[in-house]
Design a protein that fits this description.
The chain has helices spanning 151-159, 164-167, 175-179, 206-212, 286-316, 330-343; strands spanning 13-18, 27-31, 34-40, 46-50, 64-66, 69-71, 78-79, 85-87, 105-108, 111-115, 139-147, 183-187, 192-202, 218-227, 231-240, 255-267, 270-279. The relative contact order is 0.16. A hairpin with a 5-residue loop joins β3 (34-40) and β4 (46-50). By secondary structure, the chain is of the alpha+beta class. The strands form four sheets. Strands 11-17-16-15-14-13-12 form a seven-stranded antiparallel sheet. A four-stranded antiparallel sheet has the order 5-6-7-8, with no helix packed on it. The protein binds FE2/S2 (inorganic) cluster and fe (ii) ion. Residues 157, 163, 167-168, 303 line the site of fe (ii) ion.
């Protein structure tokens, strides 16, 4: 396998921001190479416009709001929330071509989702769900780190958690993660890759020992669902060693975390790494929240450092350098295959 390069897939929903980031100040983000300006109307609805004034390219994100309209900070071209120019300085006639793209946008599960491609294909019901992030029964912490690496490297990283043992040793990794084989399942119809690793008897890494208070060995389950291309959920279950859910599905001894990532191609060689950790225990405990936020960010930054190095290595390597894949790569390879099909426009299997 040559370079792990997969084209950015435009006709898909992507997370552009957390809802709390978007307000009455303009926010700049780039998704699939498209510079975007985000804001909320006075009624609170999110708006996403192309971040480039049609006049002389001034970024609208560096401009100002007048009610629900954006007034370009350079010469005052003014756009409504549909991107239509409603005012130009010094003349009555507004050129017909004076408009910027406005993108389909949906706020759901604490995320602002945007559709970059053909608006006619934007189906809000196709947005994958991460309900825990906006559910009172769960407590969440959040962050986003930009990575100077192509998005496929982040997909590889998240689909193969055996790296926890080495890259995140002493944080979330223990020997059992790398040693326990995975089960991989590919749902071609819904374009989901599932990777499971159930460890019956494992050491408890600090991330879980400190947040749950469990002492001693644990039963640790990692069940990944990757909704290609953007949303990744790691359903993490931690329990005292030997404990499994009851036959009726209840799980009083289990601690559950939904570790959510949104993988957002920014440019060909950069990706936005949105991460969130939702938990169903110690929900009111601010210390646990602060701990998980700080700790998870540290772990994410370990990944960022590694992926930045990989991107540099790829940029410098001669053509034709081959990778070597083994069993742990099954999920990552399935994800790459799925993304390639999507990039080529192959319809999902029925
Ligand atoms: S660049 Fe926006 S009005 Fe001139
Ligand atoms: Fe990692």
């Amino acid at each position: 396998m040559a370079k792990p390069t997969i084209p950015m897939i435009r006709n898909q929903w992507y997370v552009a921001a957390y809802g709390y980031e978007v307000g009455r100040d303009l926010l700049a983000r780039t998704v699939c190479g498209e510079p975007l300006a985000l804001y909320r109307t006075e009624d609170g609805d999110p708006v996403v416009l192309a971040d480039r004034c049609v006049h002389r390219r001034f970024p609208l994100s560096e401009s100002r709001l007048d009610g629900d309209k954006v007034v370009c900070g350079y010469h005052g071209f003014t756009y409504d929330k549909t991107g239509t120019c409603v005012y130009v300085p010094g003349q009555q006639r507004i050129p017909r071509t004076a408009r910027v793209s406005s993108y389909p946008v949906v706020e759901q599960d604490s995320f602002i989702w945007v559709w970059i491609g053909d608006p006619a294909q934007a189906d809000p019901t196709a947005i994958p769900r991460a309900p825990w992030l906006a559910d009172d029964e769960w407590t969440s912490v959040y962050g986003m780190e930009p990575v100077a690496a192509r998005y496929s490297l982040l997909v590889d990283n998240l689909l193969d958690l055996s790296h926890e043992t080495y890259l995140h040793g002493g944080y979330i990794g223990t020997p059992e993660v790398a040693e326990t084989p995975i089960d991989t399942e590919v749902d071609e119809t819904n374009r989901i890759v599932r990777v499971s690793r159930h460890m019956a008897d494992a050491a408890c890494p600090p991330f879980y020992a400190d947040s749950t208070g469990i002492q001693g060995r644990i039963t640790r389950w990692q069940d990944i669902e990757y909704f290609a291309p953007c949303l990744y959920v790691l359903h993490s279950r931690i329990a005292p060693q030997g404990s499994v859910p009851r036959p009726d599905g209840s799980d009083p001894e289990g601690f559950h975390l939904q570790i959510v990532y949104a993988i957002v191609p920014e440019t060909e060689n950069s990706v936005l790494d949105f991460w969130a950790v939702a938990r169903d225990f110690a929900r009111e405990d601010q210390e646990v929240s602060d701990y998980l936020a700080k700790f998870n960010r540290t772990v994410v930054l370990q990944d960022v450092t590694a992926l930045n190095l990989l991107e540099k290595a790829i940029a410098q390597e001669p053509e034709g350098v081959q990778e070597l894949s083994i069993n742990i790569d099954t999920g990552g390879l399935a994800a790459r295959r799925m993304l390639r099909q999507m990039a080529e426009g192959t319809p999902a299997a029925v």
